[in-house]
Structure formats: structure tokens, C-alpha cells
Amino acid sequence: MSILSRRARSLKPSPTLAINAKAKALQAQGIRVISFGAGEPDFDTPQNIKTAAIKAIEEGFTKYTPVGGIDELKDAIIKKFQIDNGLTYKRSEILVSCGGKHSFYNLAQAIFDQGDEVIIPSPYWVSYPPMVALAEASPVIVETKEENGFKLRMEDLKKALTPRTKALVLNSPSNPTGSVYFKEDLEKIAELAIENNFFVISDEIYEKIVYDDFKFISIASLGEEIKKKTIIVHGVAKTYAMTGWRIGYTAGPEEIISAMSNIQSQSTSNPTSISQKASVEALLGPQDEVKRMVSAFEKRRNYIVQRLNEIPGVHCLNPMGAFYVFPNFSSYYGQSYQGKKISNSTEMADYFLEVARVAVVPGIEFGADQFLRLSYATSMEEIEEGMDRIEEALKKLS
Ligand code: GLU
Fold first, then answer.
1. How many domains does the chain fold into?
2. Are 169 and 295 part of one and the same domain?
3. Pick from 267, 284, 301: which residue ends a domain?
4. Are residues 56 and 12 in the same domain?
5. Whose CA is nearest to atom 9 of ligand 1?
């Protein structure tokens, strides 16, 4: 009998977090690494949010809370959906969990069974397929192409549908490509979901990080019928620079939320009481810091996209959301450094880390080996230096 479960044996650590750890380990040795690795805003959590957390501690708000979150936070989330998306939810349709990832995990555990198929467009966020597999369902990867702006084509989605299709994972703005879906795209997807009776898991964590005056639309807001088939996964981490606080939330049909709450009740219990109070302030307090951060991200996006496209042989789409770029580096595959050939995105990323001391995530982890993901949620100085280093390193290849 093997020590580890089948489930554990088939699992590897999250590559985004692993690359982050690798970069930090090198930094601890005194090596200056520029990290375009994990997607984490470089900004500090806004002061009003920190103050709310300190107040919670001082007032002794340090005990268990209801498993699915305090009513005050659920009401703040309900208000957010009402104001931002025109969506009306009841408290029983909201669940607060320990981060957006935990929300997705609980959801997968609540609705998937062996034999269920879950359509995941690639490039996808690294943890979707493993979380679907942990729930014993089968990820069905549908490739999207750079020339289509990394967006799902209806004909490809239709082809992937079977009677076993339980859900489609939609992530707009997308991690890793930054592409966004417009109302017309969402309407078509909604129609298919209703017709073919599958759920749409809409990961909206990057909702507020959008550029070029793009107006985010939630697929759930397109009508009562699609709302019933949509489960929104969201969180405060990216919008409010609160990655370490671990607060995510889900909005969806009561039956699903209640099952997720049972799973949470038997596993983690409530998300941190203090972080919940901080999140109430994040959602209901002043939003100027969000604007400031997004406008800084937009300047960085403009810069990094331009720099990448100036590199011979590299091509990078201009993303309209999130804080990632997903450039195509495949024209360098086949080239060598000191007799060692670079054949894929993993070797390209290793090369950049070893020679340029720049951390990037290989595209293969997102299901697209021609590409690399760079997070530009880091300072302009770091981006400038990182891009200089990448350029220099590429010149050494032959
Ligand atoms: N979501 C972020 C990323 O893609 C954070 C790390 C993770 O949870 O994957 O880099």
C-alpha cells in the first residue's frame, strides 16, 4: 500500500507559487532577482483597510465567526454586486471563503462528480485543472488562439460540449492573457449554457483591474435564467492588494452555496475574523486607492507591452485587464546558450532565471507552451530593469 493517496501522488505544487518561492530563495542568498512571477500587487494594503483590521483585533473580534462569513461582510458583498453589476443576491446566496482559490475549490467539491466534464479554455489559470481533477471530474481543455485574442470561439465551445458537460470556466479579465469578454461574447455563451444546461463558473477576481475604459460585464447580469446557471468566484486580493489576507467569495444558487458551506464547515471553518472586518472596509470604504493602483498598472502595461514588442521575434498582445502579459517567445526555441538548447517555455523560463535573474512563469503551466507569463504588478523601475535583462539574455542565444 502506498503512503500517499492517488490524489496526492498526482498533484504538484502550484507553479506560480513555486516560481515565487524560487525567486525569493535566490533573493535570500543575496542575488537580485527581478520577479515577474506570481501575480501579486506590489502595493501595500491601503491604510483604511489595515486600520479596520487593527480595530477588529483591539475590540477582540478574534473568535470563530459563522462558517460562511459574517453578515456584515455578506451585506457588503451584496452591495458590491448590486452597485457594480446590477445583480441582486440574498445572504443565503453568498459564501465567504479563504481566498478566491478556496472558493473555487469548495465549488468544485460541491458540484463535480466522477464522469463530469468541465470545459476550461486554455490558456487557463494554473490551478483550475488540478482543482477540477481533485473533485474527480475531467477537465476538457479548449484551446484559444493568440490571433483570436485568446478568446473562446463559439464553434470550438460547441464542439467540446457533450451530455456530460457540467460547467464552463470563464475568467475575464483572464489570468494569464489579460483578455476580456465583451457583452456580445457573453450573450452567446449564456445562450449556449441555458440551451445545453451547463453551469458557468465566472472567475471575476480581476473585474476592477481593467484598462482603456473597458466596462466589465458579469455574465450573470445578462438575465434571470443565466444568473441561475452562473456561479461567480471573486475576492478582495487583487483589487485591494490583500493577497495575504485570504478572503474570497462566491455568489450563486442557494443550493450550491449551502453545499459549499457544508464543505467549508467540515474543513476550514470560517475565514479569518480579522480579515473579514478588513474586507468590509475594503468593499465599503473609499475606493480612490483602487483607482490609483489601476492607473499605475495601466502605465506599466503600456510600457511592458511596448518593450516586449520591440524585441525581435517576440509578439505580445495588448491585454485589457488583469496585470499579466503573455508574450510569444517561441521564435527563440531551438537556440542555445553555452551548448545548452532551449526547446520550450520551461527551459526559456529557467534560462531567464539563471542567466538574467528574471523570474517568469512558463506558458506550458497555463497550457500554452509558446508563451511566457510576466506579471507587471511590480514597480516601473523593476520592469525597466527586468526588460533590459531579458533583452541582454536573448542576445546571448545563438
Ligand atoms: N493567482 C496568482 C497567480 O496566478 C497568485 C498565485 C496563485 O495562486 O496561483 O500568480
1. 2
2. no
3. 284
4. no
5. 16
Q: What are phi and psi of 138, to 5 degrees?
A: -110, 120
Ligand 1 atom index nearest CA of 14: 9
Q: Say whether both 166 and 270 belong to one domain.
A: yes
Residues 348 and 252 grouped into a single domain: no
Shared domain check, 157 and 117: yes
Residues 189 and 71 in one domain: yes
Residue to substitute in 20, 125, 365 for testing ligand 1 pocket (most ligand atoms within 8 angstroms of CB): 125
User: Whole-prediction pTM value?
Assistant: 0.97
- Looking at 259, 284, 309, the residue that finishes a domain is 284
Pocket test for ligand 1, best of 12, 35, 36, 40 (most atoms within 8 A of CB): 40
334 and 313 assigned to the same domain: yes
CA of residue 76 to ligand 1 center, whole Å: 25
Ligand 1 centroid–CA 209 distance in Å is: 15
Render 208-237 in DSSP notation, one character per residue. Answer: T-B-TT-----GGGG-HHHHHHEEEEEEST
Q: Which residues line ligand 1 (CB under 6 A)?
A: 14, 16-17, 38-39, 101, 125-127, 175
Residues 164 and 112 in one domain: yes
Q: What CATH number is attached to the domain comprising 358?
A: 3.90.1150.10
Domain housing 304: 6-44+289-395
Q: Find the length of the chain.
A: 398
Q: What distance in Å separates the CA atoms of residue 160 and residue 198, rounded to the nearest whole number?
A: 12
Q: For each of the chain's 398 residues, which pLDDT tens digit applies?
A: 999 999 999 999 999 998 989 899 999 999 999 999 989 999 999 999 999 999 999 999 999 999 999 999 999 999 999 999 999 999 999 999 999 999 999 999 999 999 999 999 999 999 999 999 999 999 999 999 999 999 999 999 999 999 999 999 999 999 999 999 999 999 999 999 999 999 999 999 999 999 999 999 999 999 999 999 999 999 999 999 999 999 999 999 999 999 999 999 999 999 999 999 999 999 999 999 999 999 999 999 999 999 999 999 999 999 999 999 999 999 999 999 999 999 999 999 999 999 999 999 999 999 999 999 999 999 999 999 999 999 999 999 99
How many angstroms is it from 2 CA to the middle of ligand 1?
31
Q: How far apart are CA 3 and CA 58, in angstroms?
A: 45
In sequence order, which ranges of the chain are alpha helices (DSSP H)?
6-9, 15-28, 47-58, 71-80, 100-111, 128-134, 154-160, 183-196, 224-229, 254-266, 273-284, 288-310, 345-351, 380-395
Whole-number Å distance, alpha carbon 365 to ligand 1 midpoint, is: 12
> How remote is the CA of residue 17 from the centroid of ligand 1, in Å?
7
